[in-house]
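Batch manifest, entry 17 of 40.
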Amino acid sequence: MEGFNFTNASHNNISDPDGIKRPLSSMEVVACIIISIGLCLTPVAIYAVCSLVRKNHVAPIYVINLLISDLIQFCCLIISVAEQKESHSITLKVGYFLYDVGLMASVGFMVCVALERYLVIARPLWYSFKRVIKTPVVVCVLVWIVPVFISSTFWINENVSAIISTTYLLLPLPLLIFFLGGTIRALSASRVPSDEKRRIVGILVLVLLIYTLLFMPAVIWLSGVDNDISTNLSFLFLQLSPLADLFLYVFMRKGTIDKLLASVCCCRMDSNVSSRMDSTYISSSTV
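Output type: structure tokens
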């Protein structure tokens, strides 16, 4: 197992019997599709999130940094696709390093987003008192520095890097579950408006789903389940994680959760009405 270097491991596990490493064409196609979609939508999402600052006078710093880390991953994927035939290329190695930094930073900012939403509900007075620009800036700097340190350990000791990386990826799971559970428990005593409560819970649920579905396979791969299928699936899910982060902007917009719930309720009402009409028709036909 080659530490936290997912891109490198994904390509190194694909080879022919003659020893010539050739990545699967399907993986290349999927990577190109993800890159094209991500590079088009992520800058738009960053601009849209920044526009929320002018409207609400609140800077969603963690979400902006999360989208920036996603943009770094997309750019590094371009390098991995373009330079994958040159396994000893300096550009490719730098791309691997930056990809791992962006990937781990995105995990850190997901936790920061969940923590911020939890504090809005569970500790509103403390959050309002501590809500200064200096604190989020310091946190963001730390979130960027820690992945750089972890990725650097790969060049020193691969086994140590794998242990640190696995621990780093496992820590967010109990934290995200705690933030979601604590938020739900504190909802009844909170004075936050109902639409804001639904929006915060929706963001927490979305963050937990993204982490569980797209990052946990990588944790399993790092834990020792190392084969071609697990490696390719883990890397594929990690490639999809930046696209999933784009939904955070959708959930941040006011009224999105209400519209979603309204559409679900309308679908249920339509299905109930249709079922009642069908039962009425059947009963009348039997009479």
